[in-house]
């Protein structure tokens, strides 16, 4: 398979996987917050869940920021991170930032009625930003591949 064919296959896979990974990420956050109250989280199982979320967040953020293809040749990475992918990524970052700001406003309003720990606030902000960025990027990539 040529580098161009490999890159084309990876671009199609990335367009399918980013929104799916965002949905899994959001579902994980729903299960995390539904089983506890804000501010709790000192049990060992809570630390394991938070660590798993942090690792997944870092991997998703790095894959989004770099375009993935870490184990591919430089030529394939250059092909999958073309100008349109960079524009779509920038738009994803923009939407992710806006989602974080909206979440910050919501947390501020919530904190007027119930205390919110710093850890919970960071959790909500990062989750909102990463998920929104991945969804927007995936939508733009899919639209570009299927006009």
What is the element string, with H for helices and E for strands? HHHHH
User: What does the oligomeric state look like here?
Assistant: single chain
- Cα end-to-end separation: 26 Å
Low-pLDDT segments, ≥5 res: none
Helix content: over 70%
What would the average pLDDT be, to the nearest integer? 87
Number of extended strands: 0
Shape call: elongated
Structural class: mainly alpha
Beta-strand portion reads: under 5%
- What is the CA-based Rg, rounded? 17 Å
- Helix tally equals 5
**Biggest sheet architecture:** none
How does this model look, in words?
With 147 residues, the protein is mainly alpha-helical. It has helices at residues 3-34, 44-66, 74-80, 83-111, 118-145. Helix 1 (3-34) packs antiparallel against helix 5 (118-145). The longest helix has 32 residues, at 3-34. It starts with a helix and ends with a helix.
At a glance:
This protein has 147 residues and is an all-alpha fold. Helix content is 81%, strand content 0%. Helix 1 (3-34) packs antiparallel against helix 2, helix 2 (44-66) packs parallel to helix 5 and helix 4 (83-111) runs antiparallel to helix 5 (118-145).
Give me the secondary-structure topology.
Layout lengths: L2 H32 L9 H23 L7 H7 L2 H29 L6 H28 L2
Helix pairs in contact: 1-2, 1-3, 1-5, 2-5, 4-5
